[in-house]
Amino acid sequence: MGRAKKPSETTQEAIKKFRDHVSSGKAAFFEKYGMQFVMGSRYGCYLGDLDGKKRLFNLHCNGGVFNLGHRNQELIDILKQGFDRFDIGNGHLMSEARADLAKVIADLMPEDLEYTVFGVSGGEAVDLALKVARAYTGREKIISVKGGYHGHTGLAMAAGDEKYRAPFGPQVPGFVQVPFADRGALIAEMDTNTAAVILETVPATLGIAIPPEGYLPAVRELCTEHGALLIIDEVQTGLGRTGKLWGFEHFGIVPDVVVLGKGLSGGIYPITATVIRRALESVFHEDPFIHVSTFGGAEVGCLVAKKVLEISSDPEFLDHVNELARLFDQGVEKLRKKHPRFLVGLRQLGLMMGLELKDGLSGPVLSKTAYDNDLLMVYANNDPSVCQFLPPLIMDLSEVDLVMERLDRALAAAKRLLPVLKFKRQVEGFVGKWKH
Question: In the chain, what are the domains?
Answer without folding.
Answer: 37-66+315-435 (3.90.1150.10), 73-312 (3.40.640.10)
